[in-house]
Amino acid sequence: MFSTGLTDLKKMRATQSADKIQFLPFLTTCLNNLGWLYYGLLKKDGTLIIVNTIGACLQTLYILAYCHYTKERRRALQQTLVMVCTLGLGWGYFSVIVSQGDVQLSQLGLVCSVFTISMYLSPLADLLEIIRSRSVECLSFPLTVATFLTSTAWTLYGMQLQDFYIMVPNTPGIVTSLIRFFLFWSLGSESQGKPLTSLSPYKRSPGPTTKCLLPGTFSCVLLETASTLLLLLKLSFSEETTVQFVIDRYNYRCQTLVE
Q: At residue 187, does pLDDT exceed 80?
């Protein structure tokens, strides 16, 4: 999910501009990563530490690139300053005021949950403008797919740990991703003046393959995502899960799409 911003980074470098790229998701995701990194350090959870360290580094790179290429640099810097102040106040509160132990972990988990929900809602900040202009150019389709899969995976991880601070705030990610899928399906072709299938790198040739019941990429992604989620549900309760099995399954699904 965090690496999907590389597409926006490549676009900014190619055009030397940050037009039609949303800045708020970069900020909220960075805030979310740093919050969960602190939570992982207190809880001594290696998964949270590794994932959110990588995420925070990537989001910092995107923020710096956006501030360099945007025409509204002052506004971007002001928003970044607000984020830094929020982090500073939060660190001071949890390090100095709140006593260490379960209370500290519980309150930090609650705050991080708010950060996660704001991260998932941030791409919809321009929802009214998207509907009014009937254009989804400011939304990232790869980020939408990655958000859907990632939020689902973290929800399952939270269920396994029985940690509601991980499980509950990731549920809005599933909901907002479905909303964005619907926007791409209903407005994508109209805003770009061409079929939505152009968003997909795969070409489907005639043959005895599975037919999409809905137009364009939306239906194919929905079908492939449903299959992936069923696989995750099956593997999440199995002790024999291996990375190689997941890779083989992924390669098989990609080959099915191409054929």
A: no
